[in-house]
Amino acid sequence: xxxxxxxxxxxxxxxxxxxxxxxxxxxxxxxxxxxxxxxxxxxxxxxxxxxxxxxxxxxxxxxxxxxxxxxxxxxxxxxxxxxxxxxxxxxxxxxxxxxxxxxxxxxxxxxxxxxxxxxxxxxxxxxxxxxxxxxxxxxxxxxxxxxxxxxxxxxxxxxxxxxxxxxxxxxxxxxxxxxxxxxxxxxxxxxxxxxxxxxxxxxxxxxxxxxxxxxxxxxxxxxxxxxxxxxxxxxxxxxxxxxxxxxxxxxxxxxxxxxxxxxxxxxxxxxxxxxxxxxxxxxxxxxxxxxxxxxxxxxxxxxxxxxxxxxxxxxxxxxxxxxxxxxxxxxxxxxxxxxxxxxxxxxxxxxxxxxxxxxx
Length: 360
Ligand SMILES: [Zn+2]
Ligand SMILES: [Zn+2]
Description:
The protein is an alpha/beta fold. The chain has helices at residues 41-47, 107-114, 155-161, 164-175, 191-202, 215-223, 235-243, 258-267, 292-296, 310-322, 341-346, and strands spanning 3-6, 15-17, 20-22, 29-39, 57-58, 63-70, 82-85, 119-121, 124-128, 138-142, 146-149, 183-187, 207-211, 228-230, 248-253, 268-276, 299-302, 332-336, 355-359. Strands 4, 6, 7, 10, 11, 18 and 19 form a seven-stranded mixed sheet that branches. The protein has a six-stranded mixed sheet with strand order 2-1-5-9-8-3, with no helix packed on it.
């Protein structure tokens, strides 16, 4: 079958080959025919070494498809079911998954996924990014990573739920807990930023300010619910106009650089919430003074996988899509075939791209 493999790191190219096979099924496995996979900025971050990953591996972690086969002990899905793949699924039994109510932080699920090696090329074992390997026509995942969805949801929009949409919408709703009538600033109006804007709108925010370097992205952000779109130089004026200079009730950083994380904290009002959604480099740091945390009483919170319980939130977000509250079709800027994936990587930063989706 066809798959796109990362052979070395750093690398600017994936190798698209047609001689990839799957290992044997074992108990607890689910084999999925991937119908669509989004191309996420994190795929590029693996290629350039920002996110560490063993190679060779099949990239892709934002996919949806149809169950082909289930291993012994799998009862929550059957062949023919439509599923979205979760890249950090809850094991269901550890403290994060039970008493703590933070299944998005389950280490058992994450490690199980990270060590999954479901592909073969000849005799060479090929792993996958976070166990998903959705840049392949078929994949095998542990059962708990295959989340059943309603059969009437188009699988192209469903794919987006697997990473970017859940990360952004979930950060606004679950992690930051944006409240009705509040003021929100979203730094970065790419795919995750657009999802966060929609999350803030769904939560009932009164003012949603999108900040980005590209004017085109700001215009587009307004289509998804931003009430204002400003370039960085115009942020002080927006802050004064909307908040009287106090700062925003909620600020969400959706880029992943130390500078914008510190900026997000500064733009948050006393007692407000600054939520870090972007994934930065391990060695980058930003400073907080030893006095300001006490005096400002701001909440600084990270958000991993949108603070979501994928077992319920995937379908919750898809209900919002069906109700017309969450625009997923509008987030698909470009549809490609798997052999165009390298071109898609190159186009990732383009102002007219929100999400590129592979059609298998
Ligand atoms: Zn992603
Ligand atoms: Zn767990």
